[in-house]
# Entry
Amino acid sequence: MRVLPFTATILAGIGAAISVPAAAQTESYRVEAYSEQTINLNICNPEVFISVNGDGDTDLDFVIRDSRGNTVHSDFDTTDITFTTLHRRSGVQCENFELEVTNIGGVWNRYEVSMQTTRSDSRASSSDEWNRDVSLVNNTKETIFYIYWSNTGASGWGEDRLGSEILSSGDRWSVTVDDGSGACRYDFKAVTAGGREIERRDVNVCGVFTITFD
# Structure
């Protein structure tokens, strides 16, 4: 059984406990015929709407469990679609839910999981008491062409943060690392001109202010 990550990284406006929902974050997955797959849903907001839409080729069954193993949603009808609202447990910054997807059919099914924040923390942004400003230092002897970072619960690196810029040997880049999820722990990856990949995993950007690539 494969366990795949997904994180809710979308927040509504600053300073409002309830505000206009943000755009949905969507990831695509493939579950093989007559098999089961588990997706980790890292929820860092009080209330997140989740929807799952398959490709229509097979019947998918769904079960969602909270961090304590309690079933909070199940769907065993004859479709490959489900939706519900997840509520993060009070007193925690983030809570991990598990979405269990079972393919009942004889062919694989490609489905999309979408999450949309419907209620956010009033302080869940870089303007809260946590300082997420860090300096990324190139301590290699090469130029860094690409830098990526993502919430440790995310399933991919996302876009190159340097864009059209580069980070020369010995230089540093001061930047705010905040995807809006309220999380503090991030993974980083730098790619040098020679193609070398340098990773720094599980960095607490709320407590570490310099990240060095060497």
About this structure: The domain at 2-13+22-119 is CATH 2.60.120.380 (Jelly Rolls). The first strand starts at residue 2 and ends at 7. The two ends are 36 Å apart (CA to CA). Confidence is low (pLDDT under 50) at residues 7-22, 122-127.
